[in-house]
Amino acid sequence: MSKLSASKGRWILAATILGSSMAFIDGTVVNVALPVLQGSLDASLASAQWIVEAYSLALSSLVLVGGSLADRFGRRRIFSIGTVVFAASSLACALSPNVVWAIVSRGVQGIGAALLVPSSLALLSAAFSEHDRGRAVGTWSALTAVATAIGPALGGWLVQAVSWRAVFFLNLPIAAAVLVIASTKIGESRSPSATRLDWPGTLLATFGLGALVYGLIEAPTAGWGDPRAFGSVSAGVAALAAFLLVERRSRAPMVSPRLFRIRTFTAANLLTFFLYAALSAALFYLPFELIQSRGYSPSAAGAAIFPLIVLVSVLSRPAGMLADRIGPRVPLTVGPLVAAGGYALLAVGRADAPYAVALLPGLVLLGLGMAFVVAPLTATVLNAVGSDEAGAASGINNAVARVAALLAIAVFGILAASAFNRSLDRRLDAAAVSPAVRSALAPERAKGGALKPPAGASETESRAITSATRASLDAAFRVVALGSGVLALLASGCAAWGVRRVKSL
């Protein structure tokens, strides 16, 4: 290691790994906690979606700006500010008295993550020499992957043993350690070539994505004729169209249109969009399926997802080495196909079958498929452009993955709500639930799997409603799994069409 690496490198690595791990763990932990949080705050499924979407919206809209702010105003300063914002909003989430408070706090938490994550990588890049940088980033990637893998199991245990609020309190001691290290062991650095910030593009992207997602989430309950749905979606599409025009004319665009003239870069980002949309939708709805439909405890639900994340963490490096030898096209084509097989198995697994039969094979295939993709995809994005544009390319690809998650949860919410309501109607008809009880049940439908029989229902009707709700939630999850499989097939097609072997950086 260089002199810098020997004296300060370990502290920089420790701070950046701990800080980034907070943001990465939060993505997996909160999903496991959502079904319990939904019941605790008496929230609708749309509100539960917003608890995830508020975070994703802020992160996806601002992650590119976060990197620019770090280069311009100081990497340690922005990293520390992001950590403070993330910790304060985590405390606010933990103390949430209602779902609106939780949604707003999660949005602020996303702002903190958008400052924290890109500045952590900028700190590593500035602190280590070119010779040591690859090893440092590799260590950062490996250990944050381990933290992410531990997240679901740890989150499930905390939710069951303590409370869903403990998931957010967990961030506070980690943030304190990060701030102590940053203030005492890390020096400040800036980029002398930092460009001005693209505020028009940022505002248009944030408003456009927010309006689009709001309309999509409101559509299942409000109906497409309602201004909250149609009007918001229209405004979002118009703002995003304006964003594209602004980026084409900007001297310092947040997203450079020129990069998308490179076929391999475009194909890799389309693959990213489809594959991460599929994964985000599946991982959002899977905990609801496990806890509310199949009766898993929160800790068991967290442990159920563990094999998927472990396979991705352990096999990504060997997959990257394979891609270096044979080129990225085959792994990036085959990986999504394997993942599609995993989604298909999740869609057809019987709800009353044991975990090892109904879920584990699908999760293993999904993990294997994603492992084929993660490392080769990153390398392909970076190698498709010049070395001077690698940072911008990486940031764009990261933002594409975040936007994919944001839109997927909203769009699949429409599909899931439709499947849930159709199945519930059929089952209530078959159980001969009285019209009066069904009328009283109508306001509860928005809660999805958290739906409870109304007070006027008889014991027989209550049992029938509970059974129908669980079966209908299972039907909705199957639709999500099949839809995710279709997106994975599209991702495979993008790789076959556009990914070519490119010269390494």
Name the features.
505 residues, Growth Hormone, Chain: A, 81% helix, mainly alpha, 0% strand
Question: What does this protein look like?
Answer:
- The chain is mainly α and 505 residues long.
- The chain folds into 3 domains: 196 residues, MFS general substrate transporter like domains (Growth Hormone, Chain: A), CATH 1.20.1250.20; 54 residues; 248 residues, Up-down Bundle (Growth Hormone, Chain: A).
- α2 runs parallel beside α4.
- The N terminus is likely disordered.
Provide a brief overview of the structure.
By secondary structure, the chain is mostly helical.
Distance between the first and last residues' Cα: 22 Å
Structural class designation: mainly alpha
CATH architectural label of the largest domain: Up-down Bundle
CATH superfamily of the largest domain: MFS general substrate transporter like domains
- CATH class of the largest domain equals Mainly Alpha
Helix-strand pattern, N to C? HHHHHHHHHHHHHHHHH
**Could you please say which CATH topology of the largest domain applies here?**
Growth Hormone, Chain: A
- Main beta sheet: none
- Tell me the number of strands: 0
Total helical segments: 17
> How many structural domains are formed by the residues?
3
Uncertain segments of ≥5 residues (pLDDT<50)? Answer: 1-5
* Mean pLDDT, all residues: 88
- Inertia-based shape: globular
Amount of beta strand: under 5%
* Helix-residue proportion: over 70%
Q: Any idea what the radius of gyration is?
A: 23 Å
